[in-house]
Design a protein that fits this description.
The chain has 8 helices and 2 strands; from the N terminus they run ααββαααααα. With about 180 residues, the protein is mainly alpha-helical. α4 runs antiparallel to α5 and α6 packs antiparallel against α8. The protein binds flavin-adenine dinucleotide (FAD). Flavin-adenine dinucleotide binds next to α3 and α4.
């Protein structure tokens, strides 16, 4: 079980309390919650079977974005199938299908790595999450986040801006005692 799974009811109650003023007079018609499946799969191609989307674990850490990556992985896999089947003339092998994975990891590997790292650092405690929110007030961080989200790649920063953001990040983490064990 994931660490927050048992706390779903408590977390829902927290949201309801915070939104109480806006919900006044409203009626609950359905209560539903589901953890976002952000678990990369160690085996995504076996034999003639290739996984895409959530089945392959393509939801990104930190942002929980999965729709784009589900559609994109399906497209890349389908393109590999068409390419290696010679438009349907032969059955693609496991090696052929693995080309889709190679291309996928080349295109998005860094994005997954960076977002995983962000989540490990900033989602480890409430203090770290607060530091993350503080850091996101910075316009350069907002621009980087927006561009990366839009272009689905880690957009490189000007080195000076990078230095400033790094210093601010460390400052936020230290101020919030977010690095304490
Ligand atoms: C609470 C929540 C919030 C999210 N918010 C966002 C968001 O804001 N932005 C974003 O980009 N992503 C978000 N995601 C992630 C996103 O929804 C998924 O990554 C995306 O829908 C994955 O698409 P998919 O086609 O791989 O899988 P799915 O959308 O899960 O599609 C799989 C389909 O297969 C069907 N199926 C399963 N088993 C069988 C079977 N045996 N036979 C036939 N059919 C079967 C299922 O019913 C389902 O319709 C969120 C996820 C959750 C849970």
């Amino acid at each position: 079980m994931k660490p927050n799974q048992a706390r779903i009811k408590q977390l829902q109650a927290g949201i309801r309390t915070r939104a109480a003023a806006r919900l006044r007079g409203g009626k609950i018609i359905r209560v539903e919650a589901h953890p976002i499946p952000e678990h990369p799969r160690p085996r995504r191609v076996v034999g003639r079977v290739a996984l895409v989307g959530d089945a392959a674990g393509t939801v990104t850490k930190s942002s929980g974005e999965g729709i784009y990556f589900a559609a994109k992985s399906a497209r890349m896999c389908a393109e590999a199938v068409v390419e290696f089947s010679n438009n349907g003339a032969r059955v693609p092998t496991e090696q052929d299908l693995k080309v889709y994975l190679k291309r996928w990891d080349k295109q998005y590997g860094t994005t997954y790595l960076v977002l995983d790292l962000l989540q490990r650092v900033f989602y480890r405690s409430d203090a770290a999450r607060e530091a993350f929110v503080e850091m996101c007030a910075d316009m350069d961080v907002q621009k980087l986040t927006f561009d990366s989200y839009l272009y689905k790649t880690v957009v490189p920063m000007n080195p000076l801006v990078q230095l400033k953001v790094t210093a601010k990040t460390i400052g936020s983490l230290l101020r919030g005692h977010a690095l304490a064990p």
